[in-house]
């Protein structure tokens, strides 16, 4: 079966509704037809310089949320990025095949470093996409399910893979495809529905999956909507309502067209109240499942040990293939 690799950074106590809709639901849907590997990208999380004990904790809560969202440890390989040293090893090889100029054009880097200023921007933040390319190429992944904000990182991963094949021969790397489901790949901030819902905001426009459900409901009910009163999916003129419809459709499994029909002639308030109820119902159950996993650290450890073992067995093979192709002398 073709392989899939994806991951999230354990940078917060909770994932967001954007992570859930743009990535996690896709991960779950793909487990039946692919060999799926999902990781906690703790090495990437070091780029925000987290407090050490919190990073460890968040790596576990992130795993618990993958599981609560429906990732099945029997069908998917779940692992911590830093448990597989080959990620950092391949990243070095790839960094020697990546242009300084092309890295400098990465929009996420430009945005983040502009905010931080040159003196507090680390080299790790700069080479972040190279490590991400290593994550993907290490598993010969065919498909990488992510949200829209990762598209550019996927493109550079493909460029680097093609470059390796040109320079060192076909089959040195598998060129991966991004799996970005257009309708779900960008969930917007509830207060500013033309901006991405993001982990780095402290505002009221983000839904945190482990937040108090009452707070979640309140945030949905106070979401910014648009001029007019018609409940219709039209992101260009009705970004707020369209975002709510996307969320509603994903959580209910109903089509946007069916929702438009049901809410024809009703007011924005009706939609918000119903969606708030659905969010509370969905994530109360989600949190209960996450709590069960979090209350059994030994089970989480077992899942991670098994995952790391499987991941390493694939990663080691790829790394030695690449080492050999680029001309490193194998140890005697
Ligand atoms: P991260 O941790 O920022 O986000 C995890 C996933 O959630 C998606 N996402 C969204 N999707 C829709 N709407 C939103 N508002 C939204 N916000 C976030 C992201 O696109 C992502 O799929 N660099 C990656 C982590 C990573 C990775 C990898 C991913 C490291 N190595 C290898 C794939 C393959 C990141 O920071 O995701």
UniProtKB/TrEMBL annotation:
UniProt short sequence motif 'KMSKS' region, positions renumbered to this chain: 196-200
Coiled coil: none
Pfam name, any one: tRNA-synt_1b
Main location: cytoplasm
InterPro entries referenced in this protein's UniProt entry, alphabetically: aa-tRNA-synth_I_CS (IPR001412), aa-tRNA-synth_Ic (IPR002305), Rossmann-like_a/b/a_fold (IPR014729), Trp-tRNA-ligase (IPR002306), Trp-tRNA-ligase_bac-type (IPR024109), Trp-tRNA_synthetase (IPR050203)
Entries under HAMAP family matching the protein: Trp_tRNA_synth_B
Reactions accelerated catalytically: tRNA(Trp) + L-tryptophan + ATP = L-tryptophyl-tRNA(Trp) + AMP + diphosphate + H(+)
Keywords per UniProt: Aminoacyl-tRNA synthetase, ATP-binding, Cytoplasm, Ligase, Nucleotide-binding, Protein biosynthesis
Gene, per the UniProt record: trpS
Source lineage: Bacteria, Bacillati, Actinomycetota, Actinomycetes, Micrococcales
Annotated ATP binding sites: 9-11, 18-19, 147-149, 187, 196-200
Domain of life from the UniProt record: Bacteria
Function in brief: Catalyzes the attachment of tryptophan to tRNA(Trp).
Chain residues that bind L-tryptophan: 135
GO BP term (any one): tryptophanyl-tRNA aminoacylation
Organism encoding this protein: Sanguibacter suaedae
EC number assigned by the record: 6.1.1.2
Similarity section: Belongs to the class-I aminoacyl-tRNA synthetase family.
Name the record gives this protein: Tryptophan--tRNA ligase
A cellular component annotation (GO) from this entry: cytosol
PANTHER family xrefs: TRYPTOPHAN--TRNA LIGASE, MITOCHONDRIAL
Subcellular location: Cytoplasm
